[in-house]
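RECORD TYPE: protein structure
NAME: P2X purinoceptor
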Amino acid sequence: MCQDRGCCHSCLHYVLDYETPKTLVIQSKAVGFVFRFTQLLVILYVVGYVCVVQKGYQETDSVISTVTTKVKGFAYSNTSDLEHRFWDVADYVIPPQGDHSFFVLTNIIVTPNQTQSRCPEVSYCDPRSNGRLSTLGLCVNYSDTQQTCEVLSWCPLEIDTNLPKHAMLAAAENFTVLIKNSVTYPKFKFHRLVSPNMRGIRGRCMRCEFNRITDPDCPIFRLKHIVSEAGEDFQSMAVKGGVLGILIDWSCDLDWWAGKCYPKYSFQRLDNKNPNNSVAPGYNFRFARYYKTPDGEETRTLIKGYGIRFDVIVFGTAGKFGIVPTIVNLGAALSFLSLVNSFPIPTPLQWGAVMHRGASKIKTKKKAIANDCACVPNRILILFTFSMYCSCPHKVCSLV
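PREDICTED:
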C-alpha cells in the first residue's frame, strides 16, 4: 500500500513539477565577446541572407508563358542555279510558325530538275545496297576515270560537298524579329503581355529596336545584334548555320514597393560549333518543291538549307509578401537566437576562464536538495552540466 502511495506521489511530482532554466553569469570579456559575436552572426544571417538575399518573407510562383514571333526583311541573291532571285519572309522562314522557335534560312545547296529515274551514284561502286538508295547492282561510268553503282532515285543526285564559302543570304543579318511574349503568375493573378503597344505608345514602340543600353525593353530585335550579343559573328555562323537561344528572364518582385516587372533578355549559342567535337556542325535540313511538266511528269527542286534556329526560352519566378513564410522565418530566427543563448559554444577561452577563476566569480543562486550533505561546486563540469556535485554518495545538488 505504501509502495503504491509512494509511486503515485512520485508520478504527481513528475507531472506537476515546474522547471526553469538555470542562469550563469561568467565575468569574462573573452567569453562575452564570443557569445555576442555568435549572436551577431545569427542576426546577420537572418537579416542579410534570409530576408534581403533570399527574400524569405515572400511566397513564390513559377511563370507560365507563351511566345509568338514575326520576322521581317527581304534579300536578293544571284547564283547559277537560281539566277536573280528576290527573297521575302515566305521564302526564308521555315516553317512559318514554330513552337517557341523560328528558323531563318541563310545558305542553300540547290539540286534542280530532279526526276524519278536511274543514274550513277555519287560514290565508289559497291553492289550491295547502302541503305540510302535503291542500288541496282550495276556498275556504270560516273566519269571517265570512275565507276559507281547505278541507283533508282531522284536524279541527278545531290552533291552537297560544294558548300558556298559565303552565305547566300548574307543580308539576313539586317532582318528584324518581333517577339510577343505573354506571361502569367496564376498564384498572384498577375498577367503581362510584351507586345508593340506594351508602353501605350504604339507608333513609338513600332520604331524601337532592342539595345542593351538605350532600349533594353524593346521586343524588336535585329538578327545580327542577337548573334553578336551571344559572342558570335553572323556571317561566319550563317555559312553552316547553328542554334541560338534567346533567354527571357521574368524573375520579378511583385511587392508594391519593388517597382515594375519587365523581362531581361540574354543570348547564348546552344549548339557545338567546334567541328572536332561535333558529328555534323551547324544546322541544316532538306526540303523540296514539286512541279509537273506539261506532259505530266513530276519533277522537283531539292534544297539543302543551312540557317540559324532561334529558340526562345522563357523562365522566371515571382515573389510576393506572404504572412506564412514571414512567420516561419521569424520563428526560425528566434529559435537560432534562443539556441545561442541557452547553449554557448564551448571554446578554449571559456574552458580557461572557468578553470582559472574561482567559483566566487560565478554568480548564481544555489539550492541544495540533499539532506545533511555538503555540496561543493565542480568547476570543470559546471560549464556543461550546470549542476553541483555532493560529497555524499548518490546525492546531487541542483542549481536554481
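COMMENT: The radius of gyration is 40 Å.
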